[in-house]
Design a protein that fits this description.
The chain is α+β, with helices and mostly antiparallel strands. It is built from 13 helices and 8 strands. Strands 2-1-8-7-6 form a 5-stranded antiparallel sheet, sandwiched between helices. A 3-stranded antiparallel sheet has the order 3-5-4. Helix 1 packs across helix 13, helix 4 crosses helix 8 and helix 6 packs across helix 8. The two termini are 19 Å apart. Bound molecules: glutamic acid.
């Protein structure tokens, strides 16, 4: 298959939609990002790489980081993790407080904000302190992306810390139910730090290979998680990776995927490749509008979907 030609076709087809979405202006540091940007990358199991557009430009990965924190928490805690966070779609917006109240502080899944905040708390307890946790997470991401330069933006993290009242409310509510062990502000700061990690689609598509290959990096043979854990993470991506639009994403794209409000989306074609796409304009559910469209075109043109 001529993947490069397909990426060029997609890059042409999405142009009319580049201004249809809205950037995540509830995070002031992201409000000024130019919505007309688009990048898409594929990395195959032998390391062959295809890209189009702004594929080397780093952007705020935001909730895509929840995939990496979930991976580490599952690796260290095993299934005990599910005592503190579920694995069912929420059917609610990513930052909803309502469901958390009537479900007694146990978030539906690791990808909505409340669930990711619990995961951050688990990792903070595991690593013992703030710096150790962030360094371990960055080290893991640098390994799977095969790029030592991955880092986070202090500016974006500070902007979220200053304006993230709702995330603080989620953390406080869970603390009141006994589901946060560490200091609330410390947990929230760590959560914002990992959301502020910056990567390009080229790096992200490479970093999906362990999930496409049962937990083992197909290029260097490193085993990060068990096949069963990789299966679970892919399943949660498919059912919960796009918040209250997860059903819609599965319907249109047909791949496990995870989005972030920075406009990035990663997706996994099991046993074949990792994919990443980026365009900052979001749809009403907070997922990249053009990114979703590009992935839909990709699976339609190539026939590569899990169904
Ligand atoms: N840091 C963002 C927030 O907490 C993440 C949301 C997202 O990417 O979906 O609101």
């Amino acid at each position: 298959m001529d993947y490069q030609a397909i990426l060029h076709e997609i890059a042409d087809e999405i142009v009319p939609f580049l201004e249809s979405g809205r950037v995540a202006d509830y995070i002031p540091a992201l409000a000024s990002v130019d919505p007309r940007q688009f990048g898409m990358s594929l990395t195959l199991f032998d390391g062959t790489h295809y890209s189009v557009g702004d594929a080397d430009k780093r952007f705020s990965i935001q909730s895509i980081s929840k995939l990496f924190t979930f991976t580490l928490a599952l690796k260290f805690t095993g299934r005990d993790l599910y005592r503190r966070v579920g694995r069912e779609p929420s059917g609610n917006p990513f930052n909803s407080l309502v469901q958390l109240e009537y479900e007694q502080g146990i978030p539906r899944n690791p990808f909505i904000n409340a669930g990711a905040i619990v995961i951050t708390d688990v990792l903070l307890s595991h690593y013992g302190d703030h710096d150790r946790m962030l360094n371990a997470l960055l080290e893991f991401i640098r390994a799977i992306a095969d790029d030592m330069s991955v880092d986070y933006s202090r500016t974006v993290a500070a902007s979220e810390m200053e304006h993230g009242f709702r995330n603080r409310a989620l953390a406080n509510l869970m603390k009141s139910f006994g589901n946060i062990d560490n200091d609330v502000l410390e947990v929230v700061q760590n959560y914002f730090n990992h959301c502020a990690i910056e990567m390009s689609t080229a790096m992200l598509s490479r970093s999906m290979l362990y999930l496409a290959n049962h937990g083992v990096d197909p290029i260097n043979g490193r085993e990060y998680i068990t096949p069963s854990q990789a299966k679970r993470i892919n399943a949660v991506m498919l059912t919960c990776g796009h918040y209250d639009a997860s059903g819609d994403f599965a319907f249109h794209v047909g791949l496990p995927g995870k989005s972030g409000v920075g406009g990035g989306i990663v997706a996994v074609v099991p046993k074949v490749m990792g994919i990443a796409v980026w365009s900052p304009g979001l749809n009403a559910q907070g997922n990249s509008l053009v990114g979703t469209l590009a992935l839909e075109r990709f699976t339609s043109k190539t026939g590569l979907s899990i169904f």
